Structure formats: C-alpha cells, structure tokens
Amino acid sequence: MIEKQPLSLAHELQELENAPAPSRGPRCSVGAFLAAAADNDAAALRQALDNDRITSRAIADILSKHGEHITAYTVARHRRRSESNGCRCER
Ligand SMILES: [Zn+2]
User: Organism's domain of life (predicted)?
Assistant: First the structure.
C-alpha cells in the first residue's frame, strides 16, 4: 500500500457507480441445492415445490434426511420466491 493520497469522498462515491451491479440477490439454500443437484433430483424437488398438497415441512424433512440442512421455513420462502416475502431466486 503506497497510496499517498486517499481518494476524495466524491471520487469514491463515483467509483461505486462503476462497480458491476449485483445481478440478483444470493440464492437461498433451496435454490443453491437445485442448481447443484443431479437433474432428476432437481426435477423431483421442483415438482414437489410446485405441488401445494405437499407441505414445506415434508420437503424439508426429506432434504434433511439426505443431508441437506434446509428448514421448512426456507422451503416455504423459496416457494414464495419473487414475492415480497419470498427469497430472491429466479422464478
Ligand atoms: Zn430460493
């Protein structure tokens, strides 16, 4: 660090504008799991998520059984993705 002069406040604020915009928020753990899981696992999970007769709790229980520590709350939030109280995964 041989910076002699710190950047001015205005300059630093202007630099922020040049920073790449964050595309979307970070994926929740359900979204991360969907991205990383095998195709058939991801497809089955998507189907379960879209089926409103299956509770978020039941999905979370099965995921936990397979070593994915995802809570029912996170599953429910993922189901509400793109709503104001949902996660920020893409729908
Ligand atoms: Zn999500």
Answer: Bacteria
* Cβ 46 vs Cβ 65: under 8 Å: no
Task: Give residue 43 CA to ligand 1 midpoint distance, Å.
Answer: 15
What does the pLDDT look like over 24-40, one tens digit per residue?
Answer: 567 899 999 999 999 99
Burial of 54 from C-beta contacts in 10 A (0-12 / 13-18 / 19+): middle
pTM of the model: 0.71
Every domain of the chain and the residues it spans: 26-91
CA–centroid distance, residue 24 to ligand 1 (Å)? 11
